[in-house]
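Just scan my protein:

——
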Amino acid sequence: MEARFQKYRGKVRLLYMYVREAHPNPQFAPCGSTADMGWSHASADTVSSAERAQRARWLANDFNLNFPWIIDDIDDSMHSDFWPFGFYVGWLVDCDGTVLLHEPWGWATPTTQWCDLPLADFDILEDYLDAYLASPPPCYRGVEKGPNVSIVPAAAHTEGIAGSKWVTDLSIANPSDGEARVSLHLQPWNLEDGETATRELTLAARESIEYHDVLDSVFEASGAATLRVESDSPVVTVSRTFNDTPSGTYGQFMRALPDRYAIGERVVGHLLMLEESTDFRTNIGLTNLGDQTATAEVEFFTADGASLGVKVIKVPGRGGTQKNRIIRGLTSSAVEGVRATVRVLTPGGRIMAYASVIDNQTNDPTYVEPIVNAFQQDLNLPAAAKVRGAGSSNWVTDIVVSNLESTTVTASVERWQRDHSGGYPDTAELVLAPQQSFVIRDVLTTLFATDGAAALTVHGSRGLMAVGRTYNDTPSGSFGHSLPGLDVTGDNLLRGGQVGHLLQLEESGAGGRRTNIGLVNTAALPVEVELKFFNAAGAVLGILDRDLPANGFVQLDRVLRSVSNSSERNARAEVRLISPTGGVVAYATSIDNRTGDPVMQLAWPVEETGEEK
């Protein structure tokens, strides 16, 4: 199917309808067990639309499938509509809606034929398509591609509590060899503070541009807003929102998300590691992608799984809202390890959510991105630490592991030491009660009685989630960044041949920032990784190659010094997995040289996000 998609891309529209894995219990398939064929697993018996969507993503990643997908709802309504047409696995539909051809049920080769079903003959489909495209009917106009769209959920130019002053820097990079035309749309949360506005720009090949304090410098606006980025070819967009002080900055990184990451009616978003105490406060933000007001329900749970209460929040169309110290209204007690669920109550509503956990002493925020897949079994936390760093910094990592299942789960945590050359990891076990969130402060000392830097892997049954926070621990408070628990079978990894992008890289003087890059090999075999660095104008600064052993973890400190003899701002890196198999997590940590405050970003592959029309 992938070969046909690539052959006819731009000529016809191909869609894959994912219903479910066919036989979740391989012992009870209609024509005998499929267990020996590797087709089925008990976890294929999905119980929600969100879980089904995640299994579809696993399938797409496992087989490197690039065509668009339609995912059936949990009631299998699409499957029911098509089933009366018989045992067909594919339809060819003309531009006026006429069904021209349906492909019979079958398997691609004789070695996989099962249950005496006929073989699917894709040559018939190709012959028919070639003939159709040679002389198409008048209604055929090819495939029209919509713009690529991504969303920065929140940007700011505003004052906060305790004298904080919040601004957002925005960077957009064009990774292609041609020009990219970009429209940057401002959608204020409160239209009384400004009007919706658009700015057009053109990026040359490989160029990246950075707007400092983007709301003020580009739109002359203040307050809070959502930024919508549209482009005619894929671009990469990231932002950093920070408290700007005379002694340095304290910030959080926020990437621009494709709008398919929005939470809809049947998707639940989970926000972990929230806290309301003398040390930390929590704000939650919601951005509405639709034109009409949407209602969201946010429920909070203690670390033991008990409900703290529910907040029902209305979000104006094309606007947003942030609820500050939202947990304080639910309890008078100090709480840590709180989990929140976000649901959309409005039919057709689509909302993006985030949390910001702020140190009360330093006003340093930690951005928490929602987890919409709560059905993971193997998670990677790419960089945990208990180590002294540059500038007398003292790095520590806390993590939270959550069990969403209704039964007790035993999870194993593996520690892979930085720069190790092979062998086996240290392992610790966690026993999590139903709905429990297990908070582990200073994880390397608590679980492994060690220091240094390491990557962590969590193994267990489905229903696991994990996040962490790595921070510079000082007598006057902490400065940190979030540490996502990444599904190692999902779309968080760079796979063979894929290129991930890291923006806003910097190596400058005492008043600026420094950048480290980390690489984690999640596979049990060695891999080769290439890092190519560009300046803001798109010129190549240099190339670094790294061989990683099985499950290897390296961090390249002050990496820009390896490729440039001068200060660099708004530099960019492309991370490519050279090896054809395996998976790699790549990240960059950018640290303020004055405050020691870090922000962390993951390397994501560029994707086309517009819809075909």
Notes: Residues 494-605 form a domain with the Hypothetical Protein Tm1070; Chain: A fold (CATH 2.60.290.11).
